[in-house]
TrEMBL record:
Coiled coil: none annotated. It holds the Pfam family Acetyltransf_1. This is GNAT family N-acetyltransferase. It comes from Chitinimonas viridis. Transmembrane segments: none annotated. Residues 104-244 form the N-acetyltransferase domain. SUPFAM superfamilies: Acyl-CoA N-acyltransferases (Nat).
Length: 244
């Protein structure tokens, strides 16, 4: 039985198995789908159970000579991608709340130092943004005009903020979180992640937390906040030729 909701499982199955299955070999499945968008024309998903799913356009699969023959492994697949000059963007960890953890989350009482932010918080949010680096702002992608925004306060000062934006046509909502350097290590980020996730779950959305696999601080935050790793997700890099 899966740790995660049917909505999460169904989303990823549709993304990777919605086309024609060209190959199943051990723990590797390769599918082709002509409906993939330009920036998703090659994707790999390695789930926590050790299985890897790959999907790409039929034209690219043919170009890389990825037929239905025997002996295809993840190592061989990745080598064919490299030989074909198909570069993958750095892998993301993908985290969700398990169904059991989500039930606990929904029963938690609100924390008095946390609250939802609105347009009325423009001044306090601007002060918060001014206190962090441009790099941190870019990496976290936390914006006051996102679909859902929560913040943690020390007195009247906003010291940590998280925002969410739903995926188009899906009940998944990505989140970003950012804490002032002077207020880190006090548990603000994990509490804000849980608060915004609780609110999103109450609206029928599945909170989704993603970070690069080399960002161990962010991955540790996800786990501390109670999220479980679903897998690692890779998509084609913008550096690959558009003709591929």
């Amino acid at each position: 039985m899966s740790l995660f909701s049917h909505e999460i499982e169904n989303f990823w199955q549709a993304a990777f198995l919605g086309g024609e299955i060209r190959c199943r070999e051990g723990k590797l499945t390769l599918a082709v789908n002509p409906a993939l968008s330009e920036d998703r024309r090659v994707m790999l998903l390695a789930t926590a159970d050790g299985h890897t799913s790959a999907v790409m356009t039929p034209a690219l699969a043919d170009q890389l000579d990825l037929g239905s023959g025997q002996g295809l492994t993840e190592q061989v697949l990745r080598q064919k991608l490299r030989d074909g000059q198909v570069a993958l963007h750095g892998a993301d960890y993908v985290f969700y709340f398990s169904e059991a953890t989500k039930r606990v989350l929904l029963e938690e009482a609100p924390v008095h130092t946390l609250r939802q932010l609105t347009a009325a918080d423009e001044a306090v949010f601007a002060e918060f943004q001014a206190a962090v680096s441009e790099q941190d702002l870019d990496d976290a992608y936390v914006e006051l005009d996102h679909w859902l925004v929560f913040g943690a306060f020390e007195g009247e000062r906003l010291v940590c903020a998280a925002s969410m934006y739903p995926w188009e046509g899906q009940k998944l909502a990505d989140m970003g979180v950012l804490t002032l350097a002077s207020s880190r290590g006090r548990g603000h980020a994990s509490r804000v992640v849980r608060a915004i996730s609780r609110h999103a779950c109450g609206l029928g959305y599945q909170p989704q937390y993603r970070c690069q696999v080399d960002n161990q601080v962010s991955a540790a935050l996800a786990r501390t906040a109670g999220l479980s790793q679903f897998g690692t997700w890779e998509v084609i890099s913008p550096d690959s030729a558009e003709s591929l």
